[in-house]
Amino acid sequence: MFKKIIWFLVVLVIACIYLIKSNSSKSTVDDLEKSIVCIEKNDNKECILNGFFINNQGMILLPSEKLDFSNGDKFTLHYLHKSPTPQAHPIDEQEIFFDRKIGLALIKINLDGNPSLLFTENKIEQGDNIYSFGFKSRGLDSIKDDGEIISIFNEKIIDKFSTKNLKTDSFVNIGSPILNNNWSVVGMTNRYSIDEHHVGLHQQEIIKFLDNNTTISYEYAKVDNPMMEYLLYVALVLLLITIYYLYSHDKEEKKKIEEKKIEEKKKNEEKKDNRGTIRDEVKKDNRGTIPSIQTIQIAFSNPNKTFILKSGESKIIGRAGDFVIEDESRHISSEHLKISYEYPNVFIVILQRLGFIEKKKYPDVYITDMSTHGTFKNGVEIKKGEKILIKKGDKIRLGKYENQFEFSV
Fold first, then answer.
1. Where are the beta strands (DSSP E) in 34-142?
2. Nearest CA to 407 among 398, 399, 392, 396?
3. How many Cα atoms sit within 13 Å of 41 on the Cβ side?
4. In this structure, is the dihedral angle defined by the CA atoms of residues 135, 136, 141 and 147, taken in order, positive or negative?
5. What CATH code would you report for 25-221?
6. In 88-216, where does DSSP find H-type helix?
7. Most C-beta atoms within 10 A of its C-beta, which of 71, 309, 319, 348?
8. How far is it, in rounded angstroms, from Cα 270 to Cα 285?
9. Is the omega angle on the peptide bond into residue 63 within 30 degrees of 0, that is, cis?
């Protein structure tokens, strides 16, 4: 049974580890670098703006600012994918989807399986810790700038059209994603502000652009739940402590049981009656008498008869039971009473081992009435079929007549 408990706890530990892992949607730095692209103008080896993959089919979101082809300028997109060496993709104006009003653009390159950034489902609030992540040169050495959201505001652009924006003190480059502590997208940096802070487009505006103008797929990150992750770690530590405690405690218990068996074996060899049956050996200490072996003696006062019941056994008392009582008057049924000498269930044993409840020195004794004329405990009839606990000193009578067929344990 102990091994089953250990295996059960090991499975719980594995489940906790899996939950902790699946609860976190945080990317690695390597994934972030491969999710972000660098746009160069006229092969000047400097990133004039950044963009990032929004799905793993090669779709890239970037600001439309600075992508002006009217003067014959050429633009090249550089990215990392399964290689630390930057790969280049010349940009054709015809392959870009622009929305100049909101200042966003989409471009798809022939690439599958690239890491992509996930949008947060968490509420975005002023004071949230954020950072900007991106590149400033073709070498694609990533830069991370920590900061916070200073304010969230709406800004009118054209006529009645307005956008929701984030003012931050975190900046890498135009087009750099603004990420939360779980590395999920909350916005995109798109310009400087007049008070030397930086302005980014709120994630809601980006999602609105994607939903209204395209059929492009994108994904949300799991809702960040640090408390859940913390509780899972606490549960994991408690499980490991419990496994260690049960293992060490079980070794001590086995050692005590072996020592007790050796001691009992020596005493039992010296204590045999004429019938060759072993009688109960009783130790006396300050707490009273404690059986040293797991048996009970069922002593009938009338008739004068004695039976021995071992721990873990169940026997039938009756005219034709395991323990036979002769009764010509037939007040006793053929199978009158079931008596069981039982250990507590596994949950009680666990609580005893952990010290939450007192450990018993011997099992419990139960009786179940199966008769026609009834069974009485201390003069009170018990219900037929009902399993009740009896203790030392209880008087059990089989049948209705006083001073007949009585026993105690």
1. 36-41, 47-53, 59-63, 75-79, 87-90, 96-99, 104-108, 129-134
2. 396
3. 13
4. negative
5. 2.40.10.120
6. 203-213
7. 309
8. 21
9. no
pLDDT score recorded for residue 4 = 61
Round to whole Å and give the CA distance between 49 and 190. Answer: 9
Q: Which residues have a Cβ under 8 Å from the Cβ of 69 and sit 6 or more positions away?
A: 75, 93
Distance, in Å, from the CA atom of 120 to the CA atom of 33, rounded to the nearest integer, reads: 18
Q: Report how far Cα 296 is from the mean position of its chain's Cα atoms.
A: 45
**Do the domains 25-221 and 282-408 sit in the same CATH topology, yes or no?**
no
Alpha helices in 180-275 (DSSP H): 203-213, 226-270
Please state the pTM of the whole predicted model: 0.51
Give CA separation, 360 vs 36, 142, 349, in Å. 66, 66, 10
Cα distances from 279 to residues 128, 256, 307, in angstroms, run: 77, 22, 11
CATH code for the structural domain at 282-408: 2.60.200.20
Closest CA to 317 of 299, 340, 338, 287: 338
Query: In angstroms, what is the C-alpha Rg of the chain?
Result: 40
State pLDDT tens for residues 198-214.
Answer: 899 999 999 999 988 76
- Of 358, 325, 329, 330, the closest CA to residue 344 belongs to 358
Domain ranges of the chain: 2-11+227-270, 25-221, 282-408
Half-sphere exposure of 288 (CA within 13 A, CB side): 4
In Å, what is the CA distance from 239 to each residue of 16, 94, 233? Answer: 10, 59, 10
Q: Which two tokens stand for residue 306?
A: 């004695």
Q: Which two tokens stand for residue 112?
A: 């599958």
HSE on the CB side for 370, CA within 13 Å?
16
**Per-residue pLDDT band at 286 (split at 50, 70, 90):** very low
| pLDDT digits 0-9 by tens, 152-197 | 998 876 555 788 999 998 888 899 999 998 889 999 998 876 677 8
